[in-house]
Structures are given as C-alpha cells and as structure tokens.
Amino acid sequence: MSSSVADAELKKAFQDLQIKKINNEQQIKLSETQIQTLQRRTQHSGLTIKQLQSLPDGTRTYQGVGRMFALQNVQVICNNMDKSVNDTQTRIRSLEDKKKYLLNEVNTAQENLRELVATRQQSR
Q: What is the pTM (predicted TM-score) of this model?
C-alpha cells in the first residue's frame, strides 16, 4: 500500500517537474524572440541616426508624435533616438539576464528529473 502511495507521489513530482521545465523552455523561446526584435530595432535606429546626421543643417525634419508629425531639429531627433537605443539595450540586457536565469532553472529541473528517475529505479 505504501509503495503505491510513494509511486503516486513520484508520479506527481515527475509531472510537476516536467511542467516547470516546459514552461521555462517556452519563456526562454519568448525571451529569445524579444531579444531578436529589440536588436533589429536597435540596428534600425542606428542606421536612421547615421542618415539623419548626414543631413545638412536647416533641413526640415519631422518626428512622429502619436498620430501626427512635429517639426523638430535634427539634433533633437537624434538625441531622442539615442535615448531610445539606450533604453532598448537596457531591455536587451534585462532579457538576457532573465534567459540565463531560466536556462539555469531548466537545467535544475532536468537534474531533479534525473535524480527522481534514479531514486525510483533504485527503489525497485
């Protein structure tokens, strides 16, 4: 009787660990996708900044504000884009830290699964 209770507990723990591992792997894939998107945005902003800096002084430039465009100085637009790039790079670093943490969690879950299987095999 206690053997079946122990088997049920092991089965429940095994399922919980599998669910945790799967959820973490999905979050890792989501983080990787977000990182790639942010890197493309950073690259695009960098190219735009280069193009804006090559414009002569006095060129009329407009910056999107909601549903309209506002006349802005080239330097103001470049400063806003630099700030945006810095914010994006901070977000990328944050997502990479999250990804490392999740990878560590997945590895821990895998080790726990291995230990669970090993203890189950030894008990038989």
A: 0.77
- What is the three-state SS of 46-100? HHHHHHHHCCCCCCCEEEEECCEEEEECHHHHHHHHHHHHHHHHHHHHHHHHHHH
Q: What is the pLDDT along the chain (124 residues), one digit of tens a residue?
A: 456 766 777 788 778 888 888 898 899 999 999 999 999 999 999 999 999 999 988 889 999 889 999 999 999 999 999 999 999 999 999 999 999 998 898 888 788 778 877 877 777 6
- Listed in sequence order, the residues at least 6 apart from 33 whose beta carbon sits closer than 8 Å to its beta carbon are none
